[in-house]
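Worked example 3 (structure in, sequence out).
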């Protein structure tokens, strides 16, 4: 019998495991918070000028093309309005050092409306019925009457002067009754007058109706539509007592309750308040505005479409977080935790903090007098927007940057439903650290097709990048589009077309694939890149492997598309390991119908069609033993386009051959 000797394995280090990694859906989008060696295979390390489409695959974003007639003056504000069945874009342009209002319809010519405004601040516009209100945080409130394009400004009222305060009954001098009077017009209230007083032997609550009373008289103020009387029992704290229309005298009979929610004004808003943000309630066209000194103005509810902030009809203002450490910067109609409609006011704090407040309006009846007042209470959570123009209301939530992260309002079930603010940017924390907090107030945002777009100042004093979060794809993020969008908006033209527009270097551009050459903005090509780092072979990312093939499947490729890979060697060095490129190839048809023998050179050869590839496979053959591999797909030329359908990485790993970096 023959004797056989068992052969030992050549080396246990040669034990292999198959590598066959499929990447064909990237549901997590862009992630920067997780280190590359721990990166999920369904995420990207870079999505430069890319978007996620279909079932979570990338494609170069839509190009930018010019939309309509371009402004020939610097843009310093923008808005939209609808009047007489047509939709317009309204502009504030810097006309030789003066801000002037222009309007434009469907990208047509700019039509001058007029006005005189500051050029150092960005102007905003809100529409209430046929009035278009203008605010910029510098100039007093004005509005454009859309019926004739006339601009209404307001003249400040002078402070009233009390001529006398007399008493009837109430013998004695034990108690002093103090009065102040303010004058009102359509938009505000003057500074309250100097105090005037009278003494009596009774406190006001003990006056006998019809027997005990005071008469307060003051001089008429030109332009005033009403006057408000304030009362104090100590000469320091004056509270609203009554608003008188068409008279310059008031009899205080002691039967009216003071309004403890409204004190005598120490500033004059009759020239129109200086609003830095405005909001119009779509239900009844009530108007709200906020000022630099944390005052929230609200128009009278009965004066639909008119900014009547005077107290005669129930308008006025309330100070929010008075003397606090926050600055009110945004107001919008929203909801509380129970879903009840309320005003939501944002007050910016420091270091990414701040406060959200809810404002409701109620009335109380004291005797035969009904008092309207604003009730303010703080919402749960301690974060607020740093960027009013980048605060987006989408679905049932508000979304905004806080300087520390991006937040979304949600609802938590507790004993009561309460509104909470939740972070939605955990996966991009390193990128958020690059945002310039000092310039974040310039950021703008909008929601379009379930995407939240934010134009942001990233390491810059001006907006220079657009990021977006996709609500329809589980809040995945796409970063970054290097576009210096000073403004961003949606415009529906009067034929029903929707235009996603941006203002870049004073040029109005729109994102569109319709009839546009791909992979360029306003005629200039840009770079796109979809990248993954770093693909590993085992759970711990320690072993080495031999990658024999790496395939990139492109759908409907055009232009030039490149695939590149780099690998980490056994010693930890990074080296290029392969590349491949697609260049558009076409097949002509119709050529054989035209020959030199049959036709002259100047005759029509008939229609000549070309057909590009619908599928292309780029193949890389990485060399050497690698611990991990990084790959990228890039394009740099105008006319390029593709869908990255799949990446397949094949080879084998060596179980006991590990990374050695010492």
């Amino acid at each position: 019998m023959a004797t056989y000797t068992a052969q030992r394995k050549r080396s246990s280090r040669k034990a292999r495991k198959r590598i066959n990694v499929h990447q064909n859906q990237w549901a997590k989008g862009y992630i920067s918070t997780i280190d590359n060696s721990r990166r999920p295979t369904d995420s990207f390390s870079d999505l430069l000028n890319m978007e996620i489409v279909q079932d979570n695959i990338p494609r170069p974003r839509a190009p930018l093309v010019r939309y309509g007639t371009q402004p020939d003056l610097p843009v310093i504000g923008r808005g939209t309005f609808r009047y007489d069945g047509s939709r317009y874009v309204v502009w504030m342009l810097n006309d030789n050092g003066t801000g002037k209002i222009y309007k434009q319809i469907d990208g047509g010519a700019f039509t001058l409306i007029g006005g005189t405004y500051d050029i150092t601040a960005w102007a905003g516009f809100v529409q209430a019925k046929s009035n278009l209100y203008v605010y910029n945080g510098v100039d007093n409130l004005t509005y454009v009457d859309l019926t004739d394009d006339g601009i209404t400004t307001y003249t400040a009222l002078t402070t009233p002067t009390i001529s006398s305060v007399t008493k009837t009954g109430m013998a004695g001098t034990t108690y002093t009754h103090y009065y102040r009077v303010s004058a009102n017009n359509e938009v505000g209230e003057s500074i309250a007058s100097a105090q005037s007083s009278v003494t009596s032997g009774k406190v006001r609550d003990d006056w006998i109706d019809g027997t005990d009373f005071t008469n307060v008289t003051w001089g008429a103020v030109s332009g005033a539509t009403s006057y408000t009387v304030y009362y104090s029992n100590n000469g320091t704290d004056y509270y609203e007592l009554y608003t008188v229309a068409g008279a310059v005298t008031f009899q205080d009979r002691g039967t009216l309750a003071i309004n403890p929610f409204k004190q005598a004004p120490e500033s004059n808003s009759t020239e129109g308040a200086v609003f830095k943000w405005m909001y119009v309630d779509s239900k009844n066209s009530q108007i709200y505005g906020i000022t630099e000194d944390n005052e929230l103005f609200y128009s009278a509810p009965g004066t639909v479409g008119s900014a009547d902030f005077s107290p005669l009809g129930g308008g006025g203002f309330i100070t929010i977080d008075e003397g606090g450490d926050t600055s009110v910067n945004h107001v919008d109609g929203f909801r509380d935790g129970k879903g009840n409609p309320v005003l939501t006011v944002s007050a910016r704090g420091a270091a990414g903090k701040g406060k959200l407040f809810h404002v409701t309006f109620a009335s109380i009846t004291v005797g035969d007098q009904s008092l309207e007042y604003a009730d303010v209470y703080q919402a749960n959570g301690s974060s607020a927007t740093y960027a009013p123009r980048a605060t987006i209301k989408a679905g049932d939530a508000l979304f905004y940057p806080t300087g520390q992260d991006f937040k979304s309002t949600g609802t938590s079930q507790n004993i009561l439903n309460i509104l909470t603010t939740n972070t939605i940017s955990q996966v991009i924390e390193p990128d958020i650290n690059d945002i310039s907090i000092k310039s974040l107030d310039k950021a703008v945002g909008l929601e379009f097709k379930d995407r939240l777009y934010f134009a942001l100042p990233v390491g810059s004093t001006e907006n220079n990048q657009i990021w977006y979060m996709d609500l329809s794809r589980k809040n995945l993020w796409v970063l970054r589009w290097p576009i210096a969008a000073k403004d961003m908006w949606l415009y529906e033209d009067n034929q029903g077309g929707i235009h996603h527009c941006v203002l870049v270097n004073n040029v109005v551009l729109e994102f569109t694939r319709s009839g546009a050459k791909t992979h360029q903005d306003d005629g200039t090509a840009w770079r796109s890149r979809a990248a993954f780092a770093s693909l590993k072979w085992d759970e711990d990312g320690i072993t080495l492997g031999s990658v024999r093939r790496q395939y990139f499947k492109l759908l409907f490729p055009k232009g030039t598309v490149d695939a590149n890979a780099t690998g980490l060697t056994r010693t930890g060095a990074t080296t290029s390991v392969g590349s491949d490129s697609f260049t558009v190839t076409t097949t002509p048809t119709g050529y054989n119908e035209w020959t030199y023998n049959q036709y002259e050179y100047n005759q029509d050869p008939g229609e000549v069609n070309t057909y590009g590839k619908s599928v292309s496979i780029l193949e890389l053959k990485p060399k050497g033993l690698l611990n991990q591999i990084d790959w990228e797909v890039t394009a740099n030329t105008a006319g390029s386009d593709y869908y990255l359908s799949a990446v397949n990485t094949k080879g084998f790993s060596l179980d006991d051959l590990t990374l050695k970096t010492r």
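Notes: The chain is about 0% helix and 50% strand. Residues 429-432 form the longest helix (4 residues).
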